[in-house]
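Re: that backbone. Tokens:
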């Protein structure tokens, strides 16, 4: 074969290969210039928000009435009337029940007669004593004149010394008789023993008379009758399960008794707002405030060395169906921020040098690393004190140090972000559990 023919054939092959290579290179350039970039990773994101953030201490306790009274009787007498039922509202000193007063009336009648008899006897005794006293005074006056006469006769030599001595003895004896009477203003009065005897009998009578008031069982407070443990015709002491006859509670004004750990009590002050929840209120939160902090602590339990401090929370229940006696949880707000910019707690990343950052996804779905300074932390959101972050920016959740600025990403939950930007959530709350 001639050289020229070989050259022509090889030339055609070379031209064909060049055309193929040029075509492939153009396609590659075309892909680089006109194809959609491929994300290098898929990340979950959430939005930054303006919201209220609160720091709270969570404690459990029981809902109790602001005041209550257990009503019993000092007399175990038959119940003649019951004037209330459970659920009735009563005022202070309102009659709840009436006992049979027959036995007390009998005792009162006897006591009254005994007092009247004792008073009559004392009156008769004083009358007779007055007569005896008057006679003794008259006799003493006569003996005084007789003694003076005897002394005069002795001076004249007509009476002996013995007669004078005898007259003086008789006079002194009469004086002793007069002095034996207790007299005031010429009137004989009762002795201390006599007066005491009458006073004792009069006090006994007055006590029995006043006990008639105790026949009527009355409420000591304003409130609602929450328990009636007696029955008509039975005795006052014969109550259901040995419980009080009646229990009266001010259920219109409730409180919550809780015990705060010694480690948290320094953050609690009177007047702090409280949010209360219970199974009976469902999702409804009831407002309250710290009304009283005990000045002393007590052991948490028999085996723990931790001390707890009793705290009383006043409840503003409004129309909430909060019931006395149920258990509840109180969130005591110790610090709060209103309408601050917050980011998801899971979006905060420690940079390894003592600082913090978030990683946002910009409008081109590129990662941007932003240094920030966090503030008050809530359950789900944390306040941003500083950092180039605005409201409704997309922030990567659970970021890590391997993520680089400018990385193209896809969003794992992009379809949910539009709704989240419109519907702002409830206040973020950080709770310190204090069981």
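Recovered sequence:
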């Amino acid at each position: 074969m001639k050289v020229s023919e070989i050259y022509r054939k090889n030339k055609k092959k070379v031209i064909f290969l060049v055309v193929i290579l040029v075509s492939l290179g153009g396609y590659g350039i075309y892909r680089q210039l006109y194809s959609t970039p491929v994300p290098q990773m898929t990340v979950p994101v959430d939005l930054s928000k303006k919201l209220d953030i609160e720091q709270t201490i969570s404690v459990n306790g029981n809902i109790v009435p602001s005041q209550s009274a257990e009503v019993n009787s000092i007399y175990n007498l038959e119940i003649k009337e019951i004037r209330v039922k459970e659920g009735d509202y009563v005022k202070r000193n309102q009659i709840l029940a009436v006992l049979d007063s027959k036995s007390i009336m009998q005792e009162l009648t006897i006591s009254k007669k005994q007092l009247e008899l004792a008073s009559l006897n004392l009156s008769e005794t004083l009358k007779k004593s007055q007569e005896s006293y008057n006679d003794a005074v008259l006799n003493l006056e006569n003996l005084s004149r007789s003694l003076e006469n005897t002394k005069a006769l002795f001076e004249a030599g007509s009476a002996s010394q013995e007669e004078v001595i005898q007259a003086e003895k008789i006079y002194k004896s009469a004086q002793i008789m007069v002095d034996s009477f207790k007299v005031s203003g010429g009137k004989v009065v009762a002795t201390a023993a006599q007066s005491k005897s009458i006073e004792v009998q009069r006090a006994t009578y007055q006590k029995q008379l006043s006990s008639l008031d105790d026949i009527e069982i009355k409420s000591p407070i304003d409130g609602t009758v929450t328990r009636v443990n007696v029955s008509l015709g039975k005795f006052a002491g014969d109550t259901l399960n040995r419980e009080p006859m009646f229990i009266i509670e001010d259920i219109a004004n409730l409180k919550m008794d809780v015990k705060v750990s010694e480690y948290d009590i320094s953050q609690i002050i009177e007047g702090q707002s409280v949010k209360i929840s219970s199974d009976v209120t469902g999702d409804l939160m009831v407002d309250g405030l710290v009304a009283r902090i005990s000045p002393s602590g007590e052991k948490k339990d028999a085996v723990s060395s931790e001390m707890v401090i009793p705290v009383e929370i006043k409840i503003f229940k409004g129309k909430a169906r909060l019931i006395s006696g149920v258990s509840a949880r109180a969130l005591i707000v110790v610090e709060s921020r209103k309408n601050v910019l917050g980011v998801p707690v899971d979006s905060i990343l420690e940079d390894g040098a003592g600082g913090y950052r978030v990683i946002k996804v910009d409008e081109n779905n590129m990662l941007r690393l932003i240094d920030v300074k966090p503030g008050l932390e809530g359950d789900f959101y944390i306040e941003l004190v500083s950092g180039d972050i605005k409201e409704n920016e997309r922030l990567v959740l659970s970021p890590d140090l391997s993520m680089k600025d400018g990385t193209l990403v896809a969003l794992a939950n992009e379809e949910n972000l539009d709704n989240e930007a419109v519907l702002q959530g409830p206040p973020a709350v950080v709770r310190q559990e204090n069981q």
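DSSP finds five helices and 25 strands in the chain. Residues 421-426 have pLDDT under 50 and may be disordered.
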